[in-house]
Amino acid sequence: MAHTKKVNQGSLLLAEPFMLDVYFRRAAILICDKHEEGTLGFILNKPLDVKIQDILGDFPEFDSVAYYGGPVQTDSVHFLHSAGDLIDDSQYVSPGVYWGGDFEKVKALIKNGLLTPNQIRFYVGYTGWSKDQLDEELTENTWIVDEMDPNYLFVFKPEKLWQVILENKGNTHSIIGQMSDFLNLN
Questions:
Q1: Which residues contact 137 (CB under 8 A, 6 or more apart)?
Q2: Strand, coil or helix: what is 130?
Q3: pTM, 2 dp
Q4: For 55-75, what is each residue's pLDDT tens digit?
Q5: Which is deepest, 41, 117, 147, 186, by most CB within 10 Å?
């Protein structure tokens, strides 16, 4: 069955329930950049057991863990936020969600208490697809496509995010979202 939903900047990709790939199992990925040459996104629901200031040496004290954004360039740090115009050079992704911007401004806003952990998330690495790779994966039903809601990023607990998004889609997706993470229990 061919996919009918088009993926754009701001789309969400949810891993199909039986995906065993260690990087993408039950992943919810926000697409931040899509163009002719490829697609880039961040896995929203894979927190790491490390605070952002432990990764970045000159970073202010901040009560926020870093997230695993994907297997590409894991030596890089990116951020998604809701601060919009407060952070120069931010790229609009979808309503209430922005990507990147002036990193020195981010640090200054955090130092001054003007940017809180519920307004920004940091990602180590990213997820990327070459020119036609994502379209091929969609044809193979590897991903379920949905719309982004800023609450998925800033409100819901990451460990429940995949399930919450599927349940919000309703119908069969709701049933899929309630499936056990342990395939042998179904």
A1: 129, 143
A2: strand
A3: 0.88
A4: 998 899 999 999 999 999 999
A5: 41
